[in-house]
Amino acid sequence: MNSFVYLLDTVVTGNSADYVPIGIQIIFAAGFVATVMIATHLLGPKRKTAEKLENFASGIESHGNARQPLAIKYFLVAILFVLFDVEVIFFYPYAVNFKSLGWYGFIEVLLFVCFFLTGFIYIIKKGALKWED
Amino acid sequence: MIHLLTVDWLLLLEKLILIVIVVMASLVIAMYETYAERKIAAFMQDRIGPNRAGPLGLLQPLADGGKLFFKEEIIPNHSNKILFILGPSLAMLTAMITSAVIPWSGDINLFGRTVSLQIADVNIGILYVFAVVSLGVYGIMIGGWSSNNKFSLLAALRGASQVISYELAMGLSLIAVLMITQTLSLKEIVEQQMASHWNILYQPLAFIIFFTCALAECNRTPFDLPEAESELNMGYHQEYSSMKLGFYLFAEYVNMFISSAIVVTLFFGGYDIPFLDEAAHADWGNWLALAGLVCFMLKIGFFIFLFMWIRWTVPRFRYDQLMDLGWKKLIPLALANMVITGAVILWMNK
Which pTM was predicted? Predict the structure, then answer.
């Protein structure tokens, strides 16, 4: 219980003004990207023909739409990523306060690692990450 | 209105100048990385490399970049036009904004003002880096999907699932480092390393995992499957031409520079000058900061060279090997490293 209160009680060291330069940098970068995009649009020659605007498929005629049903594996990887990435982020506040939480906090995190591993072993046993059939 | 007036305009101006310098410098460095890559490849394959444009071929990157501006811009008929333009723009944008939290050197003194050579010293520095790196996957995915080309789409899917898979191991490997530093601010991490030892001495395994993941995040060999030209023609940017193609290629080199900078900051002391006690030489003032910056750049240069060395030495992985390495080897390894580090630190502190 004590350790939990400590996590909530962490001293706030920064303020929102620290983020203003990041905002300026994003605006600057976006301006640069837009300028270059417009410049290259204006500078390049424009001699478009119907053949030129076809999709490239190694010289043969392309057939149909490319957006066809895909292997389910990719979606599975994406879903598992979201799941595990959230779990990884949970470790960050612990790692930053880790010394003051001591052995008590360590054992609690070991429990969390066990949950993590249980899920991890489950998806591997289920073959979610098997690419060769 | 009163709130607006209390803004420190000089500070804003100073940050703006710093942003322009940092962004432009990272672009110029990325340009010369392409030159370095070709020269290093040539050296490793016993060739000469670019040597026509200017002395030693030094103007080659300018010629290449300039050429891309004057190439015809082709947007295929069947593509989704807005997304087609948005893809490379996002890739470049994310590459350009990661540098905001990197501390380039110690504070300098200009006209009586103490100027920090870090654009934004936020207390969640490393999380910001992760957030922006995760956005990078949109550039690949949108570009591949909007082209409406089968090869591009396959490459984009491969690229996206590769990048997100290695992000997990990357995030996990850093936790062991954070247990030592007890902070997420990159500036504080560097200052701690200046006071004691570099983190590489305590966390060699975390460094190896992190660097492997950095290779995968930048789509560099041996993890360059999204660009496997022998299988997928060219990769997710197959339909692109002119500066849109340039942005994709360029973003890769900017990312390489930034990830080298982050590796150096986290594990190799950042702008720490080896074998010199900075605190004892505080009277050197701006020269000390300059020496720190030079040291930082030299360390980054070494890691960029390492990226290229690996590219011209190691062949490409097969896709299932790549996913196996990321999920079944690096993630458990990083997790074990974290638990062991935690136990050892607590045991030593007792």
Answer: 0.90
